[in-house]
Design goal:
The chain has 12 helices and 8 strands. With about 350 residues, the chain is α/β, with parallel strands linked by helices. The chain has one domain: TIM Barrel (Alpha-Beta Barrel). Strands 1-2-3-4-5-6-7-8 form an 8-stranded parallel beta barrel, surrounded by 6 helices.
C-alpha cells in the first residue's frame, strides 16, 4: 500500500492521528512555460533554465528519497515516469497529475491571462492519465489514478459558476472511470474582487464547503488544498467535517524559515497535508529541504532549529546559500497568488 493511502486511512479512522502527507509539486510546466523547471543552482556560466529531462531527473531523485508521499507532475511527465519507466510500481510514493489548468495558472513570461477572473479549462483527459495514451485500452488497474483539480473563485458570478459547472463535469467523468482527485481552491486571482483582504479566508472557506455540499461523499476529494491564511481559518475548516482532510499549498519561494514555519503552524492548527512546489524547487538543495520538512512534521526538530541545520548541511555539501543565516531565518509576507 502507498503511504498516502495508509495515512489517509489512519487520519479518517483516528481523529487524534498525527500522520502528515507531503507532496512535491513538479507540475510547473502546466503553468510557466519554458521557465517551469527553474534556473540551475549554483548558477552556471551560461544563463538558462533547466530542461524538462533535467527536471524529470529531479523528480526521479525525489521519489527515490523516501521523504514524500505524492509526486505531482504534468500528464506529459507522468507519461514518461509512470507509464514508460514504471517508476512508481514498487515505490511507496503515489503519482498524481494536474487534472485541469484554469486560466489563472497560465503564467507566461509576457502574457497577462492571470490578471483576469479565472476561467475553467482542462488539457488532460483522465483516461490518458490513467493509461498513458488516449488510445490505450483500459487495463485492470490504472497506472496513475490521482489528480489535482483546482478552482479559483473571484466573487464574480459568471466566472464562479463556470468554474463550478466545469467541476461538475469533471466529477462525472472521474466517477465513470474510477479516477480519484484532491481539490485545490486558490484565493481570488484578481485584486478588485469586492471582498476586503481580511475577509478572503472566510470567502475561500465558504466557497469550498458550499461547492462540496451537493457532492455525495463517495465522490468527495481525497483531501483539500488551500492557501495557509493563518490559525483561525485553518482551525475553522479543519473542524468543519472530520471526513475532510485539509492541506496547504506553499505559494512563493520565500525564505527557508517561511517554508518551515508555515508548515509547522499549519500542522499545529489542523492541516495534515502540504503540497510545496517552488519552496522545494527553488531551494539550494531540494532533497535536504524536504528532509527537514519531513523532520518538522514528525516532531523531530523545530522550524528555527531546522533552518540552522539546513545551512549546516549546505556548508557540508559545499553549496553557498542564497541568503545568509540571519536573512534566511526571517519570516516574510506570504504570497497567496499562485503566480507570485
Amino acid at each position: 500500500m502507498k503511504t498516502l493511502d495508509q495515512k489517509l486511512n489512519n487520519l479518517r479512522s483516528n481523529r487524534d492521528a498525527t500522520d502528515f502527507i507531503i507532496a512535491d509539486a513538479k507540475d510547473a510546466d502546466m503553468a510557466w512555460g519554458i521557465a517551469s523547471p527553474g534556473m540551475p543552482y549554483p548558477p552556471r556560466s551560461e544563463s538558462r533554465f533547466y530542461s524538462i529531462p533535467e527536471f524529470m531527473d529531479q523528480m526521479r531523485e525525489m521519489v527515490a528519497s523516501g521523504y514524500i508521499d505524492i509526486l505531482l507532475a504534468s500528464n506529459s511527465a507522468m507519461s514518461v515516469l509512470a507509464h514508460r519507466e514504471r517508476l512508481f510500481d514498487n515505490s511507496p510514493v503515489t503519482p498524481a497529475i494536474r487534472a485541469n489548468d484554469t486560466t489563472d495558472v497560465w503564467i507566461s513570461r509576457v502574457a497577462n491571462y492571470r490578471d483576469q477572473p479565472s476561467r475553467p479549462f482542462r488539457t488532460s483527459f483522465l483516461h490518458e492519465a490513467q493509461y498513458g495514451s488516449l488510445t490505450a485500452p483500459a487495463t485492470e488497474k490504472p497506472v496513475v489514478n490521482l489528480g489535482l483539480y483546482s478552482m479559483t473563485f473571484n466573487n464574480d458570478l459568471e466566472s464562479d459558476i463556470n468554474n463550478l459547472m466545469a467541476f461538475r463535469e469533471f466529477r462525472y467523468e472521474a466517477a465513470q472511470c474510477g479516477f480519484e482527485y484532491f481539490l485545490e481552491v486558490f484565493a481570488p486571482n484578481v485584486e478588485n474582487c469586492g471582498i476586503a483582504p481580511e475577509a478572503i479566508p472566510s470567502f475561500v472557506n465558504d466557497a469550498l464547503v458550499r461547492a462540496l455540499a451537493g457532492v455525495a461523499r463517495d465522490h468527495w476529494p481525497k483531501f483539500l488544498k488551500i492557501p495557509y491564511f493563518g490559525p483561525k481559518p485553518m482551525e475553522e475548516l479543519a473542524a468543519y467535517d472530520s471526513e475532510l482532510i485539509v492541506g496547504i499549498l506553499g505559494g512563493g519561494s520565500g525564505t527557508t524559515y517561511d517554508a518551515f514555519k508555515q508548515l509547522s503552524e499549519a500542522q499545529k492548527y489542523g492541516a495534515r497535508v502540504a503540497l510545496y512546489g517552488r519552496k522545494i524547487k527553488d531551494a539550494e538543495h531540494p532533497l535536504t529541504m524536504v528532509r527537514y520538512l519531513r523532520a518538522i512534521v514528525d516532531g523531530d526538530i523545530s522550524p528555527e532549529e531546522a533552518v540552522k541545520a539546513y545551512h549546516g548541511d549546505l556548508q557540508k555539501l559545499g553549496i553557498a546559500p542564497k541568503r545568509d543565516l540571519d536573512r534566511d531565518s526571517e519570516l516574510t509576507a506570504a504570497e497567496l497568488s499562485y503566480a507570485r
